[in-house]
Amino acid sequence: xxxxxxxxxxxxxxxxxxxxxxxxxxxxxxxxxxxxxxxxxxxxxxxxxxxxxxxxxxxxxxxxxxxxxxxxxxxxxxxxxxxxxxxxxxxxxxxxxxxxxxxxxxxxxxxxxxxxxxxxxxxxxxxxxxxxxxxxxxxxxxxxxxxxxxxxxxxxxxxxxxxxxxxxxxxxxxxxxxxxxxxxxxxxxxxxxxxxxxxxxxxxxxxxxxxxxxxxxxxxxxxxxxxxxxxxxxxxxxxxxxxxxxxxxxxxxxxxxxxxxxxxxxxxxxxxxxxxxxxxxxxxxxxxxxxxxxxxxxxxxxxxxxxxxxxxxxxxxxxxxxxxxxxxxxxxxxxxxxxxxxxxxxxxxxxxxxxxxxxxxxxxxxxxxxxxxxxxxxxxxxxxx
Length: 385
Ligand code: F6R
Ligand code: MG
Ligand code: MG
Description:
Low-confidence stretches: none
Largest sheet: 9 strands, mixed
Number of strands: 15
Mean pLDDT: 94
Bound molecules: fructose -6-phosphate, magnesium ion
Shape: globular
Distance between the termini: 96 Å
């Protein structure tokens, strides 16, 4: 029997700025989902990272199920009311529409869903990031499923040796392509290195996988709020579900992909490169320069309509070095202030005053040849004098 894992997330207000969720909002969302889950979902877990509330659900309604999406939407609405009462910042920010219309896609929240054939034990990890974009998952998902230096199982586990299949989306042109590793590894890398445009959406096992053929084993939210709304309205902080063990990356192989605090775009005003810091949920307050960007991980198993967990996976001193390195990288980058490559290139910034600055200075720009000519004329005049 097929089972659906649905993870839906939104920023519905935070404290004091875009820093962290409020416990009363979490309580309201938790209560709402639990009071309204009968006949819709089997089980759920509410989490958070930075200013984003995260709902993980398990059910048999398939992906894009209207009643499941509506439950999440209504829960976010209920949480927004509490955020408004408390005067939290940006209350309801990611709920772009007034009323629910069948499917939560394009309405603001981020969605990652997959229909699975559950194994005897079905372990998976939900990764949640704040102050960055969906392409921030390209690097760790590639490491988990395609890099043998991260995942020795690709070399030494017979079930992983044939590799995996990656569904990559071009989020600018709304196109998708399937690529297989290891045979198409270089093609895959040449796309997903451009992480602002080519984004890994799903990973599948290959048809010849002995334990779990042709199965969806990872899915990432790819919603781009700025494209949905046509203007900047908030962040598209991503989340992912990754199934683990038994012919898939082991829990520790999936976690190892985050041991290096690689650079992602986002951070302050969605306009800066910064290191991705792996932290426990309680440490996911976006304080320094509204960050640095962070990732939180919750580990679960699914069995008989029930989720067991979560385990707060980065609550581990073995990640202290990654966190310290991320802090040192933050110190190093911050000294560059508004200069690239700390600041993102013009076209990738969420906030920019450049068009207004250009408008103001328009009449003062001259062709460099004219400037040079005038200067040499002035100096030859001085020579005559
Ligand atoms: C970035 C983010 C924050 C805000 C910043 C300014 O993803 O959410 O860094 O961009 O705090 O926020 P506003 O414009 O709401 O004052
Ligand atoms: Mg926010
Ligand atoms: Mg956020």
